[in-house]
Amino acid sequence: MDWMILVLLLVALGAIVQLWLELKRQKRETMSANFAVEEAQRELDRLQAAQAQTIHVTRLAALGQMVVGIARDIDVPIGFARNNITMIVELLEEYRALVQQYDLAVQHCLQPVDLLFSADKASLDKLVKYVEEARRKLFEARASVESSALPNNARQLLVDSGDSLAQLTARVGSLKDFARSDSDAPALVDVGDRIDRALSLAQPRLHDRIEVVRQVGPLPKVRCAPGDLEQVFLSLITNAAFAIEGKGKLTISAKATPDQIDVVFEDTGSGMADNILPKIFEPFFSTRPPGEGTGLGLTIAHKIITGMGGSIRVQTTPRQGSVFTVTLPVGAAATDSADVR
Amino acid sequence: MFADQIRDSQNAPAPDSAPLRLLTITHDARVQRALDVLWRDHDVIACADPLAAAALAASRDVDAVLCDQRVGQAFGVDLLREIRQLHPRALRMLLSDRPEPRLLLDAINEAEVFRLVFQPWNIAAMRDAASAALRAARLAPPLSVAAPSDEEIEHVRKTMAVVVIESDAAVQQRLRDLLHGHYKTHFAVSLDRALQFMEQHETGVLVCSTASGRGDLITALKALKQAHPHLATVVIDALDDADRAAELVNEAQVFRLMRRPFNPALCRPYVDAALARYWQIKQQPQSAWRVFPAESLVAERAPQRLPPALLNRIRGLPGRLHEAEGVR
Questions:
Q1: Of A82, A153, A247, which has the smallest distance from its Cβ to B37's Cβ?
Q2: Is B75 helix (H, G, I), strand (E, B) or coil?
Q3: Among B139, B167, B199, where does a domain finish?
Q4: Nearest residue on chain A to B97, judged by CA atoms?
Q5: Among A134, A178, B78, B318, which one has the highest count of C-beta atoms within 10 angstroms of its own C-beta?
Q6: pLDDT of residue A72
Q7: Residues of B whose CB is below 8 A from A156
Q8: Are residues B89 and B220 in the same domain?
Q9: Is residue B115 part of a domain?
Q10: What Rg do the C-alpha atoms of chain A give, in angstroms?
Q11: Highest mean pLDDT range out of A132-136, B135-139, B324-328?
C-alpha cells in the first residue's frame, strides 16, 4: 500500500515538475514574444522616423532647387530699394540746389534795404529797378521750389522701396513656413490656400513665361498636415514648370463632391512617353538632368496623398501635356482640431 | 579702325540736340516711377497698354523702347518684335526680373534687342544705355527689317567670308557639313587662327562657340565688336547663365544666339541674316552706332584686360567698310 502511495506521489511530483517546466517555457516564449513586439515597434518607429526624414530632406531639396529663383526673388526687391535710395539722394541734391538758388534770390532782395536809407533821387530810381528785378528772381526761385516734383518723386520712391521690402519680408516668411512645416500636426486645412502658397513658392519657376489659370472655388476643408499638402502641390507645379519649355499654360482647378475634392493640375508641357509613365512614382526616378531633381518629389507626393486615403491619377499626351488629378477625402470636421488656413 | 573713323567724323550728338524720346512699357507702376526718375533728363513716354504700345511707338516716333518681360497678358518679346516691324528706327531694350533661356533666345534672335536689362538694374548702365541710344538715334540711319535681294545675298555669300571658330572636332565637322559649299567659309580651331585669316580676307560673319579655344573668347568678342561693330557674330552658348547672355548682348552685341546643342535647321538662316546685316552696315557705315557695344560692367572681363598684343591685333584688323562695291 505504501509503495502505491509512493508511486502516486512520485507521479504527482513528476507532473508538477513537468507543469513547472512548461510554465517556465511558456514564460520564456511570452518574454521572447514581448521582446519581438517591442523590437518590431522600435523598427516601426525607426521606419517612421526615416520616412519623416525623407519627406523633410525632399522638402529642403525642393527649396534647394528653387535657390536660384529665390536668390533673384530676394535680389530684385533689395536692388530696387537700393536703386531708389540712390536716386532719392540725387533728387535731394537737386532739391538742395533749388533751395540754394532761392536763398540767393532772398539775399539779392535784402541788399537794397541797406541802400534805401542813404539814397538820393537818381539812386532811388535805380533802386526801384533793382527791387523789381530782385522780386522777379525771388518769384521765379520760389516758383521753382514750389513746383518742383523732386520731393514728391523722392517720397514716392521711398514708399515704393518700403512696398518692395515688405514684399520681400512676405516672401522670406513663406519660405520659412515651408521649410519648418514638418512639425505640423494634422488639422483641418483650406486646400485653396495651400494651392496659393505652393504657387507663391513656385513663382520663381513659373514667372512670366507660364500663364497660370486658377479655377478654385470654395472647398470643404480636409484633415492633414498643412505642410504636407503644400509640398504635394509644390511638387506637381514645379514638375509642370519643368515640362513646359518656353511659354505655356498651367491650369489648376478644384471641385468638391460630398466625399472628396479633386484638384487638377493641367499643363501644356512636353507630356510623357509610354515607357516613362509607369515609373514616375518610383523613388529616384527623374527625367531632369543630374542635379536638377531628387527623383523623390512624386514618390513623396504619392506617399502623402495615399497616406491621407486619397490618390493621384495621371493622364499624359507626349508633346501636348499632362494632367495630374489629386483626390482628397473630405473628413468630418472635428471640433477639437486646429483650423488652419 | 572703324570705331575711330566714326569718332573722328561725327562724334556725339550736339549738346543742344533734343533729348532721347523713350517709350517705357510696363504694368508695374513702381517700375514706371523709378524709370521716370532714372531717365528724368530724357523724354519718357509711359505705356501700360500692350495693345497700344506698338502704335504709340510709331506715332510718337520714339528713339528707343524699353519693355517689361510681361505686360498684362502680353509678352515683352512679342511687343518688341511687333515694334521692330512697325517702327524699326526705335532701339529695343527688354527688362526682365527672371530671364529664361527661351526668352533670351527670342529677345536676341527675333526682337534683336539693343540691351538686355535684368532687375535690379545698374543705374549707371541704364543711363549709359540711354546715352548710347541717343547717340545711335541722332547719328545712325535705321537698319532695314527687309531682307536684301537674292542678288545681293548671292554676292555677299560669294565675296565675304564666314569664319567659324570651333575647337570641338565633332561640332566643327557638323558646322562644316552645314555651311561649306554655301559660303566662303574658313574653319579655325582657335581665335589666333581665325585672326590670321581675317587679317587677309574680308570677313562678314564670325560663328563661334563660347566653349571654344583657350582664354576668354567672350572678352575677345567684346574687343572685336568695339573695334569693328559692323562684324556680325553668331554665337553658340549653353544658355545656362542669364548674366552671360546679357554680357553677350550688351557688351558683345551678338547678332544671333544658338543654344547648345544647336538646331542645325537654324544655322544657315542665321548666317544668311548675319551676312545681310554686315552688308547693310557696309553700305551705310554710320548705322554701326546701332550695334555699338556697352562698356563692360565687370572690369576683369573688359577688352582692355586682354593681352596687349592680342588687343592690338584685333583693333588692327582691316575695316574694309568704305570699300563697298558690287550689286545695288
A1: A153
A2: strand
A3: B139
A4: A76
A5: A178
A6: 73
A7: 33
A8: no
A9: yes
A10: 39
A11: B135-139
B133 and B183 co-located in one domain = no
Contact (CB, 8 A) for B66 and B90: no
Q: What pLDDT, on a 0 to 100 scale, did the predictor assign at position A68?
A: 64
Please, are residues A179 and A329 in contact by the beta-carbon 8 Å criterion? Answer: no
Looking at residue B16, its pLDDT comes to 55
Task: Express each pLDDT in B233-260 by its tens digit.
Answer: 999 998 888 888 999 999 999 999 999 8
pLDDT at A129: 84
Phi, psi values for residue A322, rounded to 5°: -135, 155
The phi and psi torsions of B298 (rounded to 5 degrees) equal -105, 115
Map grid coordinates 502704335 to a residue.
Answer: B55
B278: which residues sit within 8 A by CB, 6+ positions away? B156, B160, B204, B205, B230, B231, B232
Band the pLDDT of A337: cuts 50, 70, 90.
very low
Q: What's the CA gap between B288 and B293, in Å, rounded? A: 10
Is pTM beyond 0.80 here? no
CATH number of the structural domain spanning residue B243: 3.40.50.2300
pLDDT in tens, B303-320: 988 999 999 999 999 876
Of B36, B102, B120, the CB nearest to A80: B120
Residue of A nearest to B119 (CA): A76
> Which member of A69, A83, A153 has the closest CB to residue B123?
A83
Contacts of B132 (CB under 8 A, 6+ apart): B114, B292, B294
* CA B97-B101-B104 angle, 5° bins: 70
DSSP class per residue in A40-74: HHHHHHHHHHHHHHHHHHHHHHHHHHTHHHHHHHH
Q: Structural domain of residue B108, as residue ranges? A: 18-139
**Subunit contact A83:B70, Cβ cutoff 8 A:** no
A84: which chain B residues are within 8 Å (Cβ-Cβ)?
34
- A153-173 pLDDT, tens digit per residue, is 998 999 899 888 887 887 777
A64 has a chain B CB within 8 A of its CB:
no
pLDDT at position B197 is: 94
Q: Are B6 and B229 in contact (CB under 8 A)?
A: no
Both B162 and B304 in one domain: the answer is yes
Task: Give which of B185, B233, B226, B231 is closest to B209, Cα–Cα.
Answer: B233
CA-to-CA distance for B29 and B46, rounded, in angstroms?
10
Residue of B nearest to A88 (CA): B37
Q: Cα A103 from chain centroid?
A: 54
Q: Do A78 and B120 touch (CB under 8 A)?
A: yes
Nearest residue of chain A to residue B118 (CA atoms): A76
